[in-house]
């Protein structure tokens, strides 16, 4: 559910006094920076590629360890 600052102010002003609602929405607006918390499609694609590389590398290392244990015994 997306809610804007003005909608938040309207909701809070119904329950609280208008001064407190304004201060609270100002505080929330100052603390939340919307653009730094969002991932783009490019970021997600890069993360997927990195995860695949790590999984393949770990699989190869695990396979070599199992083969090493097999030949040791």
From TrEMBL:
It comes from Pedobacter terrae. Keywords: Membrane, Transmembrane, Transmembrane helix. The keyword Membrane applies. It comes from the Bacteria. The chain crosses the membrane at residues 51-71. The keyword Membrane applies. This is Uncharacterized protein.
């Amino acid at each position: 559910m997306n809610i804007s600052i003005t909608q938040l102010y309207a909701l809070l002003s119904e329950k609280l006094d208008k001064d407190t609602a304004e201060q609270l929405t100002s505080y929330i607006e100052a603390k939340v920076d919307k653009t730094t918390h969002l991932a783009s499609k490019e970021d997600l694609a890069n993360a997927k590629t990195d995860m695949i590389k790590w999984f393949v590398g770990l699989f190869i290392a695990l396979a070599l360890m199992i083969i090493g244990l097999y030949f040791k015994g």
